[in-house]
Amino acid sequence: MARLTDHLEGPDDELIAFDVPAGASGIAQAEVISGRKLSVGWDDGTVETVDLAGLIHGNRHFRSLENAAAFAAFAVLEGGHGIRWAEGPDLSAEALHTIAAAQRGWNGADFSAWMDRLGLSIQIAADVLELHPATIKRLKAGNRIDRTIMLAATALESDPVTLSAFYRPRRAGRPPKREDLMGYARGAMD
Question: Fewest CB atoms within 10 Å of the CB: 90, 105, 126, 139?
Answer without folding.
Answer: 105
